[in-house]
Amino acid sequence: MHRAEMIMAIALMALSSVFMIMATDLPIGWVRGSGPGGGAFPFWLSAIMFVSAAFILIRELRKRLTRQQALRHFIDSVALLDIGLVVGALLITIGLMHVVGTYIALPLFLAFYLRVMGQHGWLLTAAIALITPVVVFLFFEVTLRILLPKGITEPLFYPLYAFFF
Amino acid sequence: MLTSLRTQAAAAACALAVAVTAPSAQAADWEPHKPIEMVIMAGQGGGADRLARFFQSLIQKHDLTNMPVLPVNKGGGSGAEALRYMKDNAGDAHKVMATLNSYYTTPLRQDIGVDIETFTPIARMAVDTFVLWVNADSDIHTLDEFVTAVKEADGSWKMGGTGTGQEDSLVTAMLEQEFGIKFTYVPFDGGGTVAKNLVGGHIDSTVNNPSEQLPFFRAGKSRPIATFTEARLEPLPDVPTMTELGHDLTYGMQRSFVGAPGMPADAQQYYIDLFTKVSESEEWQEYAASEALDTKLLTGDALQEYFLKERATHAKILGIN
Amino acid sequence: MEMLAHLADGFALSLSPLNLMVITLGVTIGLFVGAMPGLGSVNGVAILLPLTFLVPPASAIMFLGALYYGAMYGGAISSILLGIPGASTAVATTFDGRPMAQQGKAGLALIAAAVGSFVGGTISVILFTLFAQPLADIALAFGPAEEFALVLLAFTTFVGLGGDDVAKTIVMIAFGLVLSTVGLDLISGQPRLIFFDLPGFYSGISFLVLAIGVYGIGEILWTLETTRGRAQVMTARIGVKDLWTGIKLLRHSLRTMTVGSLLGFFVGLLPAAGATPASLMSYGMAKTFSKKPETFGKGAIDGVVAPETANNAASTGSLMPMLTLGIPGSPTTALLLGGMVMWGLMPGPMLFIEEPDFVWGLISSLYTANAFAVIVNLALIPLFVYALRMPLSILAAMVIVLCIVGGYAPDQRLHDVWLIAAFGIGGYLLRKLHYPLAPLVLALVLGPLMEKAFRQALIAAQGDAMTFIERPLSATFLVVAGLFLLLPLAQAIRHRKTPTEPANGSAGA
């Protein structure tokens, strides 16, 4: 916990430094006669963020830990595996949306999540993985007319468009 | 190069034919087989957005397409986002973009790697006009009084307008150059907000479009000084043009549709036909008249020529060569 | 008297069979669109605007108005059930709505939200009927300086110092405000903070993307860790009797509702502000003046009633500058305005004189829409609550799908979905380390308004910062804002609270 706290403070300091450097593309000072320049808000707010994060870091460094506190983990290995799997699946799903589109990526994600994470039966998994995309299509594309990304599967939808629109 | 010239020539010929004959007589060979995306170069709720959605609703009302037209706002970075999006979708026949003047000013002001010459021109639907306005409580009635007052204010005269680099700021820059005066330019995020700030007395003058100020004008809360048009405007018959007053200041905001670079020629023709029909609709003509819009239609090559000329003019106003 | 006659005519119009049908339909669609995380009234109105050409203009605007109302009610549903605010106006509803749902009181929270919305909407419509025209000028008195002061006030009513770890709160506020500056700088017309030169950053970072990320994905990851993915979520159930008990319980919240309605209506009148600052201020007021302020953030019923009353009151209030001045207070009202213009109605000072039938038809339809919205909403509550009884592993998968699709839908950019994933992971880690997330989200909502108004005011005053103090309205707001900032601090000093490490479960807000 103690180490995670320090790593996060350092990460936030690094992030705010990047913001500060990027903000200097525009004037960060007080422009005479018109108030702060375009870079002033992001720059000085990032500076505040940097200072506060540095304060947190110093506070952690000076903290005297009891033995028990020092041994407390940020996360245990079981939870780490669960969360790693979900995050991985999420990122792969979004990546797949670019290539094979929403209607392949979402069922795959649902199938993985329900079967592997939730350990539900095949029947339930299949039912949800197949019904959800249909509902999504009917609600978003047919009712609200918002097209979701389809990637290379786009031509497969031409007959559906012709039917619904 | 040769083929593209030829297709453009063919498109121009067709455009001419469409313009001459009745629009219903001709049907393009191409038809969309998926919904048409209408990319809007501005955020939701602004003037450009409202107009684009108006066109969409006219298309839907008269059932002019077999597939729905779906508006999508990509207003980021003064339209930079929309321009990049169209460029990345080169050759796509199912995307049209509703443009405004940032179509040329944004690529001029920032290096976003987009050359509008490569885009496919479809149709210019309207040109919006600009008028110089002051609050009705002010004692300024003529352009000369206005110029004197601005000079007396010595740079502290507050001119309100849309974001820096957008149309209002260009018109303001033109005024500064012509009269050798200096304003304090206060940018707001939309024409409606600008109009309200004038009526509320938070700024001293604006160059609002007529549609933004007319309701206040009718209620006697704002006063037009001069128009930036070639001829007087129908809803404001008593307001002189800048040209009449001896100043060569005209400026218009075009509202057009373009396709992605490399849109197939038959698709381009389809959209030209489509927007020609929209342009001829009674609702559009009525609406345009009430908003003091110039509805002269330009399509295909004639439009491209217009774009390039306007781009050169804007480069000059912006001081880029 | 003349007004009553007008109103009676208006009711005759809005209660015609066609219009009643249109209103019911609008309310129901709005409810579902609003309940989707990511989609709010602006999407609903934008998408359905063209469809309204099928009916006469008066019916069309009633349909859109009903949709607007329905979506405002619906926004609370995802805030309470999933903890994901469906729109910025519903952020404050998550603070207590979510904890209530976690305690198995989802039904009560939904009832409180619905009844609060109804009361807020109704009081606001009555004020609207009485004072629409005379109050229009208030909106005009608001310049950039006043807008800045008001937004600052909204911010401080909620984020008083004290409570959470101060250093961490400041980090999060600054972080949120920096994120709000990404994109185009309106004042100079220059792009800034375009990370990796991605075009998606040109339009800035939408509040929804951050909210769906930290409250949607982040929440799922958090739940996954705390429950090991196997526990049942909540055992909420609700019957007709519970509905009635719930409504009766709300008589204790009458004062909160009254304050919320008035506050919402007046803040809603101001063009730039709208419903989000109104809901935050109402929440802050309810907490400050509550007899039990310590229950706020842990499932206080008044914490749901206050923002919901105010945001509905404000959405009614914000119709007024749109109708009487032609100034939209929010993207949604801008679209409604666009719709009116298309039908040949010119909003502005003359509308009440030139088109009385239309105006009073619309006003009366607001009464009707509000009544229908509360009925439809209450009727559907059992259904929504039932959805929560799904096993967590199914619910979590569904929520992730909703986050992906709902995050993509508003602007149709996969870029936003990647950001949601990044914010989800980052938000989960921050939350584990007790960084408060609400200030981060609020800073992103209010940041753009604040910076813009601040700089506009300074430009107009030739860079003279005294403008904020010299203008009476803005000075008043600033003083009140200062009080709100210092009040919790003073209380903290008086109570001499020893700084304790927050317990694991209390990070729910």
TrEMBL record, chain A:
Pfam families: TctB (PF07331). Keywords: Membrane, Transmembrane, Transmembrane helix. The chain crosses the membrane at residues 39-58, 79-110, 122-140. InterPro entries: DUF1468. Residues 7-149 form the DUF1468 domain. This is Tripartite tricarboxylate transporter TctB family protein.
Automatic annotation (TrEMBL), chain C:
Keywords: Membrane, Transmembrane, Transmembrane helix. The chain crosses the membrane at residues 20-39, 46-69, 75-95, 107-132, 138-162, 169-189, 201-224, 257-275, 325-346, 358-384, 390-409, 437-454, 475-493. It comes from the Bacteria. Residues 20-442 form the DUF112 domain. PANTHER family: BLR4373 PROTEIN, TRICARBOXYLIC TRANSPORT PROTEIN. This is Tripartite tricarboxylate transporter permease. It comes from Roseospira marina.
